[in-house]
Every structure is written in structure tokens, then in C-alpha cells.
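look at this fold:
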Amino acid sequence: MLLPQHGPGRKHERPIRLEDWQLEITRRHPEPLIRGLLHSDGCRFINPVRHGERRYEYASYVFTNRSEDIKGILCEHLDLLGVAWRRAGSKNISIARREAVAALDAFVGPKR
């Protein structure tokens, strides 16, 4: 099976696993997998923040998915690149540190 998300039932209610041969490829080249996941279930946005009278903005990525397996696949591959991430609720993975956003900006690109 090329794409483990294809199969019977809802993705978040069944196991989603990459086969050994898929992991071998994606661990060597994590960028295309991360790009595809962010293009399908993620977004890049500018987050406005206010501290008293001061207001500033910073870029962030968020990935939203109900499947723990799919979120785990993303996070494992972000870890391979040293991209900092955190859980932001039960469905979201947030990438907001300046260095992490810059790393993703280098290869994710705009959604098409």
C-alpha cells in the first residue's frame, strides 16, 4: 500500500502506520512528507499578540488531525530535522518558534 490513509473506516479510528520501506524513504527524505502533511491538514499564518499596549506578530504553522498516528508520523519527521513543535490541544500540532518556522519555510512553500 503506497498511502496508509487509504483503507476501510475512519482514519482516526484505525491504525495508520508506515511500512518499513516507507519509513526508510521518509526518514532519509522527511521534507516531502512534512510538506504533504502540512499542505493537506495544516496551515501557515501570522499570529498577532498583544502585551499591554505592545502588539507584535509572528509566523506559525499548525497541523490539525484527529488521528494520533498521523500526528505521530508528522512529529517523528519534524524531530528528524530538529524542528521544534508542541501539542496545542487534542487535535493540533503547533510550530511557532522562529527557527522552526524558518526551517519549514525553506521547503514547505505555499499550498497549491
